[in-house]
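Model: You mentioned two targets. I'll fold them one after the other.
Researcher: Yes, keep them separate.
Model: Target one:
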Amino acid sequence: MQAIILAGGKGTRLRPYTASFPKPLVPVGQKPIMEIVIRQLRNAGFGKIVISTGHLAELIEAYFGNGKKLGVEVSYVREEKPLNTAGALSIIDGLEEDFLVMNGDILTTLDYAKMFRYHLENKASATIGVHQRIHKVDYGVIKIGKNSSLEDYVEKPQMDFLVSMGINILNKHAVSYIKKGEPLGMPDLMLRLKGKGEKVICFKEKCEWLDIGRPDDYELAQNLVEKNPERYFHD
């Protein structure tokens, strides 16, 4: 199976760490986050990895090479201009009929193989990995009615919502909706597919998921991996 890892971003949320260091090589525990991702993908049956690079591409290519040391086949495409989270797919040759595409800065216990099977069984054009997050508002939330009257007062409420994990499965046909070299975000592609009547579904699984591009998530990821590294990767 084939996986595309998006690693072209500048990692601005993690500055100053990423000013001279690409975000996919930021360490979580003893290994760069993208090495953890690649090991997980390999263990799930993804033997072909394409890395889309941009910012500090040379460092990423030098670290992972052809992938032999990790037991996978690694190749690269380089974005001459930022193409966002979906646009890079338009410059990749040799895409398989169905493939996984994900951000290179995610720490998760998601069952990638199970998600891939779900996508195939449902014969979808695209499958979006979604995760439930709880957000606590640190203020008292006021609802105002007519004439400025108090309607409700909720102290520090919690909101539950589903977010994109930055992990998707696509059918090759979906890429035909992206013009070659067109900067396009994954949300825009999904809505474009939906608007054209293509089958776009969501996959939800109870798992851990952290976006280490967020400083709070990065700190939590460090703690989790240090306490239980074998939960996230093994040789």
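Model: Target two:
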Amino acid sequence: MKKVAMACAISASFLLLAACNSGDNETVAKTSSGDIKKEEFYEALKDQHGEEVLYNLIITEVLSSNFEVDEDEIDEEVDSFKDQLGEQFDMWLMQEGFADEDELREVLKLSMLQEEAVTSDIEVSDEEIEEYYNDMKIEKEARHILVEDEELADDLKKQLDDGADFAELAKEHSTDSSAEEGGDIGYFSRDAELVPEFLDTAYELDVDEISEPVQSQFGFHIIQVTDSKDKEDFGSLDDMKKEITRTIKNDKVDQADAQEKIQSIIDDADIDIKIEEFEDLFEQPEALG
């Protein structure tokens, strides 16, 4: 399933909140004990989800005035979910809190607007695209040892260089679930849901080569590629260029820079919220001196 770089969630109740009018006293439910009015319903939803709903609605409006998401792109994302989920698609929508496909499309639109905002000025060269494409034609098999401490990682690498058994060290020291399998994570592709640091390193290694410790958000990896094989019936570069470019851009995103870009767009939008309890929604805390 395609990655959505800047994920957000809008539940069915969120969109109901957006549609409600606080001044409307229409009955939305009747019971033998009394009626529920739309205003009462609105207030309850506002108290529970109002801040997140309002934030998402404003961000969508602001980003839409600065960036454009083609409906065809949203169609592609939805079709990707449908292709992989098959008959389970409707059940998945319900489990994720979406009333229907339209709500999923709203989430995807906001996510893709955010993605465009933080990647629009990131450059990707033809050489990078071609190299990534060539890597995508190959499947790698690898194992790794993941530890939190750099000093331990350096020590384990030295032990491996001196002939220690990789699987045994993984079983003893690795902190992830692959430890039970001696660090084996099986075969994977260049676009697998693995951290970029791991993938970049694995695709630079020859079979049986062991990497130096590589840091990611999870700790320090020592990686050994155990096999490499070509994929069959692989698509053309022209067909895959757009998606490859998008993936490379997302891999280059620095989260701190991304937050600054979004905040800068928000600051320039001159947002004035008229609901008293949410009027400080976009105010930034003062820096500590």
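Researcher: Noted. Anything on target two?
Model: Confidence is low (pLDDT under 50) at residues 1-16.
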